[in-house]
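Hi F.,

I've been meaning to write this up properly since the lab meeting, where we talked about keeping a consistent format for the predictions we share between groups. The idea is simple: the sequence comes first, exactly as it goes in, then the structure tokens exactly as they come out, then a line or two of notes. No screenshots and no reformatting. I'm using this chain as the first example so we have something concrete to point to.
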Amino acid sequence: MVKFIAHYKQPADPAAFDKHFFEVHKPLCDAVPNLLKMEVTKVTGTPRGPAELYLIVEMYFESQQVMMDSLMGEAGMATAKDARAFAKDIFTGMFGEVVDTAKVMA
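Output, unedited:
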């Protein structure tokens, strides 16, 4: 399993960010084909105080090829376009492979 991970730094206006993210952006993400699961984490701080990150989004897919095909399709591109429009200066996207730690530790 693989995932697309999005990090959003602290927005200038958290209320406006939340409104756009949950009312506009998340529905666009939900429309991406082959999405197995999506997790949204609102960062509340670090052991040493305030966090640089505000929100972490993880979108899970069956394989790298399926993820790339899905993200490069119409719905995926609409999601990317929206992220660049509302969060271009605070957004970072990356790809990751989910590691089964039970197998690694065995």
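Notes:
DSSP finds four helices and four strands in the chain.
Residues 14-30 form the longest helix (17 residues).

If this format works for you, I'll send the rest the same way.

G.
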